[in-house]
């Protein structure tokens, strides 16, 4: 009878508390390990998605490699000479009554979009007289042949010399390498 309290405390309660502590510690370790595993699975899935995305981008870039090299070559050429030669070729394709280049100006220095960029560029101001359809076709051809041109300003006025003719004033930023 004298030892009943000691036996109860040291024989049952303390071992029970030790078991509960070990069990709680085991649950904490398991939940921590589970959270870490799920976090690592999520990171792995994200990494795999990024890897597959980069493989897809590499494939797309590989398909356009020839265009990229061609564009780099175009960027190396002087814009004023290229524009002049392309406009001559475009003018030969279109009817003379519907397309006439009236002016070409290459002002020095940066202006427009180029003022806020460190990229080398030049300005090009062109003036034309022609029909809307022919000018659309000419602009399409020019911008297709020279993707480094960025339209900055387009002004269209009716021509005083003909009823179907229009006067076009265009300003481009020509990006260069």
Describe the structure.
The protein is of the alpha+beta class and 177 residues long. It is 57% helix and 21% strand. It has 4 helices and 4 strands. A 4-stranded antiparallel sheet has the order 1-2-4-3. α3 crosses α4. The mean pLDDT is 86.
List low-pLDDT spans. Answer: none
Major sheet: 4 strands, antiparallel
Strand order of the largest sheet: 1-2-4-3
Mean pLDDT: 86
Judging from the principal axes of the Cα atoms, what is the shape?
Answer: rod-shaped
Instruction: Please estimate the helix content.
Output: 55-70%
CA gyration radius, whole angstroms? 37 Å
Q: What's the assembly state of these chains?
A: single chain
Query: How do the helices and strands follow one another from N- to C-terminus?
Result: HHHEEHEE
Outline the secondary-structure elements.
Blueprint: H1 4-63, H2 65-76, H3 79-93, E1 99-105, E2 121-130, H4 132-145, E3 149-158, E4 166-175
Helix pairs in contact: 3-4
What keywords describe this structure?
single chain; 4-stranded antiparallel β-sheet; 177 residues; 4 helices; 4 strands
Give a quick summary of the entry:
The protein is of the alpha+beta class and 177 residues long.
């Amino acid at each position: 009878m004298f030892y009943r309290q000691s036996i109860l405390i040291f024989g049952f309660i303390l071992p029970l508390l030790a078991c509960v502590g070990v069990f709680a510690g085991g649950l904490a370790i398991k939940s921590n390990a589970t959270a870490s595993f799920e976090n690592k699975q999520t990171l792995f899935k994200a990494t795999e998605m990024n890897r597959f995305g980069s493989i897809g981008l590499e494939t797309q870039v590989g398909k356009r490699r020839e265009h990229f090299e061609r564009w780099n070559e175009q960027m190396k050429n002087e814009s004023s000479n290229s524009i002049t030669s392309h406009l001559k070729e475009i003018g030969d394709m279109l009817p003379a009554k519907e397309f006439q280049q009236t002016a070409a100006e290459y002002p020095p220095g940066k202006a427009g979009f180029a003022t806020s960029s460190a990229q080398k560029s030049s300005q090009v101001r062109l003036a034309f007289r022609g029909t809307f359809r022919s000018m659309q076709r000419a602009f399409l051809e020019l911008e297709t042949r020279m993707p480094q041109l960025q339209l900055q300003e387009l002004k269209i006025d009716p021509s005083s010399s003909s009823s179907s003719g229009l006067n076009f004033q265009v300003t481009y930023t020509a990006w260069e390498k």
